[in-house]
């Protein structure tokens, strides 16, 4: 293997380091919202550019790694100690998709004209916390050892609690308290898993652990896997560990809800993929994952049917579609893993877009409750912005949701087991019911006259308060419909376009996810790259650049 250039080492660190530095700068610039916004957008732009370059490099050359520190560990377990960051095709794709979403959402948030000192979203707190959240997300995808992954989760937890409770309203504090308690339980279980892993293998480096676990008795391996599955299952909102999500996300401001719904559960899904393929290949827990995936799909979508608030409805659909990703992980084939990776990328974009559209609906009509909404078809642009991601989520051809689901169903059919066929049936039912709940939103919020809504008068009385001054996009001439800032509409349109791009370039994207799936199933390149960099960090005179 040829030496790794030093500039690639810098590139790998940028998605984590730049947001952290920017968070410190924005915190110091708390009295200057304009500076905060500029620093935030520039930092996210730099991180996204670095991630796009890493996606190109991994596509062409495979896996890259860097070990920061590299202290000689002979006194402990004979291996180098340090922080290992690894970027392969899977990590690079997750970085690009996540940073695209984070950049669009922060522009959307700025477009909401959040002002320092308001009761809703004080910018001096919001943007630094948002950047810390970004650093935690990026580091989660790059982490090459369990403890670094744990630290990333804790960074996410701290920033998430601040963002969830912005404004300190009763509902937000209650939801934030529930979220923090569940997350702490998950963190304690994960910490116990880390201790168990270290006691079993003598290392927390994922590459070294993958080798040493092959020599561990099956019972011990399965017990360790079960502990990690519970910890990551809570993060990913896999049933029955998902009941916390619908009560936590809908109370937050629209940009916060969009980021949480689109990204945070996918960090847990990413950890499940990495654990399943790198540490515990062989399918010992596949049946458990299949049952969990099926129940996650069905329970989530049945919960969505019962909701009248769009935010809560979308939160339940979020849970249900996590089941598709667990389905792909559990089947364990190259095709199912590729389909799961593709579906993760699709769902991040589409779910985030839908929550951004709900924020526009609230500004437009004064409510997100189906009991109060109606007549939004008078706003054609808003109708289109909702309809495209709604059809995509429902899996209507030729959208990316359809492509991902067909690939998952094909992988299940190739597996051929009775449980796989049950999952295929559950997937089809979930997809049809998803289309039903999207159609329900469309008919009630857009086609129905507002006067026919049970509480339509309440929304009409508040809509006029949402009309803004300045450069806005007027979506209707009706006096009872609000206006939306250009900087809210444009990033939402960009997110819709990103979802369509995943459809239009579905072939090349699936080719990339195929390569990513090959890379995670065949562990050899990941392991050899990490161990070579660890050795070079411990003995730099004979290492790489």
Question: Mind explaining what this structure looks like?
Answer:
This protein is mainly alpha-helical. The protein contains 20 helices and four strands. The chain has helices spanning 6-28, 33-61, 89-111, 123-142, 146-164, 170-201, 206-213, 218-236, 245-248, 254-279, 286-305, 310-331, 334-365, 380-394, 400-415, 418-447, 456-463, 486-504, 506-521, 524-538, and strands spanning 64-71, 81-87, 472-473, 484-485. The strands form two sheets. A two-stranded antiparallel sheet has the order 1-2. Strands 3-4 form a two-stranded antiparallel ribbon. The longest helix is centred in the middle third of the chain and has 32 residues, at 170-201.
The percentage helix is over 70%
Poorly predicted runs of 5 or more residues: 74-78, 114-120, 460-481, 541-545
Query: What distance lies between the first and last C-alpha atoms, to the nearest angstrom?
Result: 13 Å
Radius of gyration: 23 Å
Q: Helix and strand string, N-terminal first?
A: HHEEHHHHHHHHHHHHHHHEEHHH
Average pLDDT over all residues: 84
Number of helices: 20
What summary fits the major beta sheet? 2 strands, antiparallel
- Record the strand order, biggest sheet: 1-2
Structural class, by secondary structure, is mainly alpha
Instruction: Report the principal-axis shape.
Output: globular
Total strands: the figure is: 4
β-sheet strand percentage: under 5%
């Amino acid at each position: 293997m040829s030496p790794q250039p030093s500039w690639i080492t810098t590139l790998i660190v940028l998605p984590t380091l730049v947001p952290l530095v920017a968070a410190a700068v924005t915190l110091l610039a708390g009295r200057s919202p304009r500076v905060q916004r500029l620093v935030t957008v520039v930092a996210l732009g730099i991180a996204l550019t670095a991630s796009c370059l890493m996606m190109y490099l991994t596509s062409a050359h495979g896996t890259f790694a860097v070990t920061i520190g590299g202290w000689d560990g002979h006194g402990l377990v004979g291996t180098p100690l340090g922080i290992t960051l690894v970027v392969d095709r899977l990590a690079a794709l997750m970085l690009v998709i996540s940073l695209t979403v984070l950049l669009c959402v922060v522009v959307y948030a700025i477009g909401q004209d959040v002002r320092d000192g308001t009761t809703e979203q004080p910018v001096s707190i919001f943007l630094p916390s948002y950047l810390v959240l970004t650093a935690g997300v990026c580091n989660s995808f790059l982490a090459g050892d369990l403890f670094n992954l744990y630290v990333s989760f804790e960074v996410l937890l701290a920033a998430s609690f601040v963002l969830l409770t912005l404004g300190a309203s009763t509902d937000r504090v209650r939801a934030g308290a529930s979220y923090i308690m569940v997350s702490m339980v998950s963190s304690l279980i994960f910490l116990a898993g880390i201790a168990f892993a270290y006691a079993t293998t003598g290392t927390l480096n994922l590459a070294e652990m993958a080798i040493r676990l092959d020599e561990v008795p099956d019972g011990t391996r399965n017990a360790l896997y079960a502990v990690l599955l519970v910890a990551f299952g809570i993060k990913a909102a896999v049933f029955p560990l998902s009941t916390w999500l619908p009560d936590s996300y809908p109370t937050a401001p629209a940009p916060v809800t969009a980021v949480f719904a689109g990204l945070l559960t996918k960090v847990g899904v990413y950890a499940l993929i990495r654990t399943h393929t790198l540490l515990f290949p062989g399918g010992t827990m596949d049946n458990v994952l299949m049952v969990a995936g099926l129940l996650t799909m069905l329970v989530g979508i049945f919960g969505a049917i019962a909701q009248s608030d769009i935010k809560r409805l979308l939160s339940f659909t979020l849970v249900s579609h996590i089941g598709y990703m667990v389905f792909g992980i559990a089947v364990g084939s190259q095709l199912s893993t590729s389909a799961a990776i593709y579906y993760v990328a699709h769902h991040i974009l589409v779910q985030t877009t839908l929550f951004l559209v709900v924020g526009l609906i609230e500004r437009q009509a004064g409510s997100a409750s189906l009991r109060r909404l109606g007549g939004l078809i008078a706003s054609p642009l808003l109708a289109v912005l909702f309809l495209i991601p709604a059809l995509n989520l429902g899996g209507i051809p030729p959208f990316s949701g359809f492509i991902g689901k067909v690939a998952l169903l094909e992988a299940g059919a190739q597996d051929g087991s009775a449980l796989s066929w049950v999952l295929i049936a559950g997937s089809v039912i979930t997809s049809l019911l998803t289309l039903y709940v999207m159609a329900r939103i469309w008919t009630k919020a857009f086609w129905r006259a507002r006067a026919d809504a049970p509480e339509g008068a309440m929304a009409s009385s508040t809509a006029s308060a949402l009309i803004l001054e300045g450069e806005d996009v007027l979506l209707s001439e009706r006096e009872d419909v609000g206006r939306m800032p250009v900087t809210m509409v444009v990033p939402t349109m960009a997110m819709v376009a990103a979802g369509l791009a995943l459809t239009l370039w579905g072939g090349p994207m699936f080719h990339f996810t195929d390569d990513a799936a090959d890379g995670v199933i065949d562990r050899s390149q990941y392991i050899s790259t990490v161990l070579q960099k660890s050795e070079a960090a411990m003995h730099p005179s004979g290492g790489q650049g």
